[in-house]
């Protein structure tokens, strides 16, 4: 089979590998399509602290089950499934309290173990979620990115009284806009980014108001507009954002952060406690696939709005270069296998 492998930082190849055999409790799929994510780029560029090389990348993938390991019903062969990349032990403390995404033995498919940019991949049977026929292949490939929004929203509990502010109009910001609008029905969604084309995508994805903060002070601008956000999602993840978010948040606001920077930032107890602000973090997803699949079936979210490019998998270098260099026009890139 052909697999897209990062052999070492900056060394990405399409190589011939042996088709993997599903282990006990696993299924194997023939991959149909996969999505490129920032973390794939980071593994390629050597910027992902969790990656081990060589690695077949890809954690957003769709395929058909073509073989099962012992203990898995043979009836599952033929199912069209989407893979949850979170592989967890099932018995540690986080697993026991419903947080397998931070399992103490966490293995992320495409990061810690070989991923979905490959003609075949194996995964635990419980990670393989059947996709109903009404969801097309390209939409189904977008389920994983929406689980990130589902996970952070599950922490923040947005509702109709909330004014939401989202930093960043990349794929994570856009999935969050759609969830806040289409699922949680918040009062207003404001999106801030430094790139006008991205802000236009935010509008197309349901933002009520967009702000380019490249040449203005966001706190001043929101004060001028009389806006005090009650829910804030940091989907831009610069270390300067959390202190600013705390400053401009309404009393009783919730702030959700998604970033992995190890750079410190300065926040004060007073800024948080005086307004009793809650700060949540969110990593990957905790069993959110069924929820996002039902959002798609009910047409509450519109994954096609994020897809800007599609390539055949053997054009991976072109696809990765477009994704890396064309932030103005490129959002989600899908690969066909
Ligand atoms: P992206 O790079 O496509 O989008 C980030 C956007 O933020 C860009 O449009 C950029 O112009 C904007 N931005 C950067 N600095 C800004 C600032 N100071 N103010 C306003 N806008 C600013 O990335 P993507 O894929 O949307 O992911 C966003 C972040 O979420 C990344 O840092 C990524 O590492 C993180 N992430 C976290 C996950 C988790 O489970 N915790 C999962 C996926 C991504
Ligand atoms: Mn992803
Ligand atoms: Zn565990």
Can you walk me through this structure?
The chain is α/β, with parallel strands linked by helices and 337 residues long. The protein has 2 domains: 2-142 and 306-336, Alpha-Beta Complex (Quinone Oxidoreductase, Chain A, domain 1), CATH 3.90.180; 146-282, NAD(P)-binding Rossmann-like Domain (Rossmann fold), CATH 3.40.50.720. The protein is built from 11 helices and 18 strands. Strands 3, 5, 6, 9, 10, 17 and 18 form a 7-stranded mixed β-sheet that branches. Helix 4 packs across helix 5 (171-183) and helix 4 (143-156) packs across helix 10 (289-297). Manganese (II) ion binds at residues 37, 39, 59-60, 144-145.
Count, helices? 11
Bin the strand percentage: 25-35%
What is the second-level CATH architecture of the largest domain?
A: Alpha-Beta Complex
Average pLDDT for all residues: 98
Assembly classification:
single chain
Top-tier CATH class of the largest domain: Alpha Beta
Outline: globular
> How much helical structure, as a percent, in the residues?
25-40%
Biggest sheet: strands, sense, closure? 7 strands, mixed
Fourth-tier CATH superfamily name of the largest domain? Medium-chain alcohol dehydrogenases, catalytic domain
Rg measurement, Å: 20 Å
Summarize the topology.
Blueprint: E1 2-8, E2 11-16, E3 26-36, H1 38-44, E4 55-56, E5 61-68, E6 80-83, E7 86-87, H2 93-96, E8 107-108, E9 120-124, E10 128-130, H3 137-140, H4 143-156, E11 163-167, H5 171-183, E12 188-193, H6 196-204, E13 209-212, H7 218-225, E14 231-234, H8 241-248, E15 254-257, H9 269-273, E16 278-281, H10 289-297, E17 307-312, H11 316-325, E18 332-336
Parallel strand pairs: 11-12, 11-14, 12-13, 14-15, 15-16, 17-18
Antiparallel strand pairs: 1-2, 1-4, 3-5, 3-9, 3-18, 5-6, 6-10, 7-8
Bound molecules: 1,4-dihydronicotinamide adenine dinucleotide, manganese (II) ion (MN) and zinc ion (ZN).
Manganese (II) ion (MN) binds next to α4.
């Amino acid at each position: 089979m052909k697999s897209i492998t990062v052999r070492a930082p900056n060394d990405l190849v399409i190589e011939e590998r042996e088709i993997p055999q599903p282990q006990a409790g696993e299924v194997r799929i023939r991959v149909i399509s996969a999505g490129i994510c920032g973390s794939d780029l980071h593994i390629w560029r050597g910027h992902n602290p969790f990656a081990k090389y060589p690695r077949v990348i890809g954690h957003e993938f769709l395929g058909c089950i073509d073989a099962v390991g012992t203990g898995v019903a043979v009836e599952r062969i033929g199912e069209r499934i989407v893979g949850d990349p979170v592989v967890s032990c099932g018995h540690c403390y986080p697993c026991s309290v419903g947080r397998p995404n931070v399992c103490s033995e966490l293995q992320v498919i495409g990061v810690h173990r070989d991923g979905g940019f490959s003609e075949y991949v194996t995964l635990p049977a419980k990670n393989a979620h059947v996709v109903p026929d009404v969801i097309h292949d390209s939409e189904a490939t977008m389920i994983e990115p929406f689980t990130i929004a589902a996970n952070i929203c599950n922490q923040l509990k947005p509702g109709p009284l909330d004014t939401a502010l989202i930093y960043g109009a990349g794929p994570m910001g856009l999935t969050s806009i759609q969830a806040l609008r289409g699922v949680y029905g918040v009062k207003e969604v404001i999106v801030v980014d430094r790139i006008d084309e991205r802000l236009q995508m935010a509008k197309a994805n349901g933002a009520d108001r967009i702000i380019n903060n490249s040449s203005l002070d966001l706190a001043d601008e929101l004060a001028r507009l009389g806006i005090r956000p009650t829910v804030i999602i940091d989907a831009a993840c610069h270390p300067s954002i959390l202190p600013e978010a705390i400053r401009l948040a309404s009393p009783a606001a919730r702030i959700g952060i998604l970033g992995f920077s190890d750079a410190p930032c300065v926040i004060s107890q007073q800024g948080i406690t005086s307004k009793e602000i809650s700060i949540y973090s969110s990593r990957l997803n905790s069993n959110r696939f069924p929820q996002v699949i039902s959002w798609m079936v009910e047409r509450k979210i519109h994954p096609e709005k994020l897809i800007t490019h599609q390539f055949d998998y053997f054009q991976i270098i072109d696809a990765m270069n477009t994704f890396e260099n064309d932030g103005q026009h490129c959002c989600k890139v899908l690969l066909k296998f």
